Amino acid sequence: MGEIRAEVVIIGGGVIGLTIARSLAKRGVRDVCLLERGGLGCEASSAAGGMLLPQVEADAHDDFFALACRSRDLYPSLAVELREETGIDIELDTTGTLYLALSEHDYEEIEQRYHWQTRAGLAVELLTSAAARQLEPCISESTFGVLLFPNDIQVENRRLIAALANSVNVLGVKTVTETTVAGLVIEGRRITGVKTSRGDISCQTVVIAAGTWSSFLLQSAPNITPVRGQMVCLESKPQLTRHVIFSPRGYLVPRQDGRLLAGSTSENAGFAKRVTAGGIASILRQALEISPAVANLPIADTWAGLRPRAVDGLPVLGPCGEIDGLFYATGHYRNGILLAPLTAELISEAIVTGKTSQLLAPFSPDRFSSQPVVSV
Ligand code: FAD
Ligand code: GLY
């Protein structure tokens, strides 16, 4: 690659890096260079279920909830724009999500969620088991009650990656795959470039969007650790359910082409991105609890991915106070697909205008105790 220059370098070609690259290019930033160690979207972003569910698991109207709802609500326009830019349909499915209570304890949980969200004026309905089974006959007869979230929807995340890759290409972003960033170049307290496996790149701005590997780029980076999630892909023709179906222990996500995703596990297994017999067994147990009809479906595929989690479980977003020109967009944990559109808007706005939105304040990388800056 030799010595090259860029205005902004983005490290990581997952959903977060790609949406930020697109947003910067749309704001008129030229010379955006996105560096990816493998292929675009090859890690968590392709392993995900594509669910856009801020309400389903929320117990309070906090900063994270506000961020997640805003990001979900950007998806309809993003889907239209990506279709126009690339011809790719990201299969945004607005049928909605059902959340099942499969025990008395689950029912207490969903009642509380129903009450606070109703009081907050959010769209949610409490259905009897019979009413829910009229909507989706595959639901277990042992269901105690069901919440219907009409605004919690889903997207086909692999098509989303394909559309974003195509879009950034059209917009003139330089994407360099099969290239690892080995470290940052910092002079004084300012970023001046990155070191890669194919040579150095000089730049004034760097965005770390390297998912669960984000901590390796700088010793003082916030600690991001991998939480493994395994997935089973079933074949369901005709499709078992039109809604996404969620329970406190698992979920089913129907795709338009007849795949039915069953997820997932949450494991601290380091960086071992493996599918295990125990993982698959627990996913199938959870799926059968939601719908006994799953027993008849062939297994088409299995995979695992690593969710990037910060110590407090919240995303890490915004400028690094200690190093001028360095931004973080990582730690999206279970919700990176959901949070991508708003993450991209807010990070690109901060880079272009130099002003950081108040929406990002609770997620600042500076919330973690600061250590001396040492580049690696
Ligand atoms: P990644 O997609 O992991 O991308 C980071 C990229 O950086 C990788 O491609 C990696 O190769 C690259 N990289 C790392 N280090 C370097 C380096 N040094 N140099 C160059 N490149 C580097 N979220 C939802 O919103 N909805 C869901 O339904 C959902 N379901 C999920 C189900 C499972 C089983 C899993 C595992 C995750 C799920 N998630 C879901 C979470 C979501 O997948 C992640 O939060 C999101 O993909 C994170 O995106 P990212 O771009 O930060 O990370
Ligand atoms: N958001 C679903 C998962 O992370 O498994």
Can you give me a brief rundown of this structure?
The model has no long low-confidence stretch (mean pLDDT 96). With 376 residues, the protein is an alpha/beta fold.
Explain the overall architecture.
The structure is a single chain. The chain is α/β, with parallel strands linked by helices and 376 residues long. It is 28% helix and 26% strand. Strands 6-7-5-15-16-17-14-18 form an 8-stranded mixed sheet. A hairpin with a 4-residue loop joins strand 15 and strand 16. Helix 3 crosses helix 9 and helix 4 packs across helix 7. It is globular and about 65 Å long. The mean pLDDT is 96. Bound molecules: flavin-adenine dinucleotide (FAD) and glycine. The site of glycine has 7 residues, from loops.
